[in-house]
Amino acid sequence: MNVRLRHDAIVRSLRRNGTSTIADLAAEVGASRRTVLRDISALRDEGFVIHSEPGRGGGLQLDPQSVQTTARLSVAEVFALLISVASMRAAGSLPFSDLADAGLAKIEKALPPDKVRDLRRFLDCLYVGQLSPLVDISDMSAMDPALLPAFETAFLQRRQLRFQYRDAKGAVTRRMVEPQAMLILPPLWYLVAWDPAREDFRHFRMDRISRPEYVQDAPFRRRHVPFKDEVTPIRDLPR
Amino acid sequence: MNVRLRHDAIVRSLRRNGTSTIADLAAEVGASRRTVLRDISALRDEGFVIHSEPGRGGGLQLDPQSVQTTARLSVAEVFALLISVASMRAAGSLPFSDLADAGLAKIEKALPPDKVRDLRRFLDCLYVGQLSPLVDISDMSAMDPALLPAFETAFLQRRQLRFQYRDAKGAVTRRMVEPQAMLILPPLWYLVAWDPAREDFRHFRMDRISRPEYVQDAPFRRRHVPFKDEVTPIRDLPR
DNA sequence: CCTAATGGTGACAAATATTGACACCATTAA
DNA sequence: TTAATGGTGTCAATATTTGTCACCATTAGG
C-alpha cells in the first residue's frame, strides 16, 4: 500500500471511529505499529491536529476542526477566489471573511512564488469606492472568465490592451488603451485606462468589454490615475 | 533531491523558460534524462498539460492555463469561501465569479461526502434580498469566525441557539431561539429565528451576536419563515 | 506498589521504490 | 542523410521506506 493511500486510510478511520489506538490502525491499514506512528507524525506535520492520550483507555483522536481537504486549483481559479474575497471585503465586513482570508492565504502560500508576486502586483491595481446610485444596474452581465488571461498579461507586463466596447447606448467601438487600474464599485467593475487616441483617462465597464487581447509590442509605463471620487487601494483595506 | 522538490523545480523552470529540452531540465535539476522523462510523465498524470515537440528545435512547453496548486483547507475555511462566493454572486454578477465557482466546486469535490451534505443543507437556509437604504452601516463589525461551529451545529442538527445580543440602542440581552434561516442583505447578515419566549420570528444582525452556544437537549423543527421583503433562496440563484 | 495498556523514540537490517546507464525507436528540420 | 529532439524498456545500483526490537513515559485499575 502506498504511503499516500495509507495516510488517507488513517484519516478516514480516525474520522469514522472517533478514537482509535495505534494497534487498531496498524491492523486496519496492514502496516506495523512503528509505521503508523511515523504516519501520524507526518500527518501532524501536514497540519492535522491529532490528540493522543497515553495509558490504559487512551488512544488517538482527530480534531474534526482540523480535517482538511486538498484541491488542485488552476492559477486562474485562485486568482478569481482571491479577488472575490477581496471585493467582498471591499463591500463591507461580512461574517467569516477572516476565515475566507485564512483559506486564501493557505492557497496563496501553495502557489509558485512568482505567481504570488504577480497576484500582489495585480492587487495593487485594484481600487474600491462607493457606487453612485445613478448607474443603471439592470443590464449587467458577467464577464467571461476566458477573458482573464489577456487582462492579466496586459496588467502584469504593461502591454496595451485592445478590445471591443459596447457603450451605454449600445454603440460598439474598438479600443486600444493602457490599463492602469481596476475600480470596484460593487457590484460593478471598471477598467481604468489611459486612452492614447484621446489623450485622457477613460473608465470601461468590465461587463461591456469583449474580445480583449494584449498587444505584445506596445509596452507603456504606469501613470498616476486621477480618480474623480474617493477610492481606496484594496491593499490598504483593513484585514 | 526529493522527488517532490524536483517536480516543483521542473514546473518552475518550464514556467520561466517557456520552452526547455529534456537535456536542459536534466542538467538544471541534477538528474538523468530518464528521470526527467519519468517526472514529466508523472506531472502529466497530475494534470499538468505539457506539450512536446520532437525533432530539431523541439522541446517541452507547459500550458500556463494548467498550472495548478494544492492547498489544504480546513472545513471551516472551505465553508467560509463557499458562502463568500455565494453572497458575492448574490450581490450581483461580477467578473470571474464563474471561475471562483469552478474553483470552489473542485474544493467541494475534495471534501468528505458527509461534509458536502452538511454544507448543502446549510446553504438551503441562506436567503438573499436587497438591503433597505435606511440601515446604518457605519457601526458594522465583522463576526468572529470562532463563532462558526456553534452556528453550524445549531443549523444542521436543529438545536436551539443561545447567545448574547446587543440591539441598535446598545442594550444587551440574552436570547435562546430556533435558528431558521440566514438572510443576506449585502453587506449585512441576519439570523432569522423563531423566538419561543415571544412566540414570533425575530431578525438578529450577525455582527451583534456574541458568545453563541447550541443547546444539546433543545431540538426543534423547521418552520416556514414569512419573510417581509422579497428574498431569494441562494440555491435558486442563477449560476 | 504493581501490572497491563497505551503513546512515543532510536537503531538497524530487510524490503521496496527510485534512479541512472544504455540501447533503441519515432519524428522533425536542416 | 544527419543531428537533435521526445519517448520506452530493461536491469543493476542506489536511496528510501518499513518492520523488528528494545526501551521509555504515562495512565487506570487492582
From TrEMBL, chains A, B:
Keywords: Transcription, Transcription regulation. The keyword Transcription applies. InterPro entries: CBASS_pafABC_assoc_protein (IPR051534), DeoR_HTH (IPR001034), HTH_11 (IPR013196), WH-like_DNA-bd_sf (IPR036388), WH_DNA-bd_sf (IPR036390), WYL_dom (IPR026881). Gene3D superfamilies: Winged helix-like DNA-binding domain superfamily/Winged helix DNA-binding domain (1.10.10.10). Pfam families: HTH_11 (PF08279), WYL (PF13280). SUPFAM superfamilies: Winged helix' DNA-binding domain. Residues 3-58 form the HTH deoR-type domain. This is WYL domain-containing protein. The lineage of its organism: Bacteria, Pseudomonadati, Pseudomonadota, Alphaproteobacteria, Rhodospirillales.
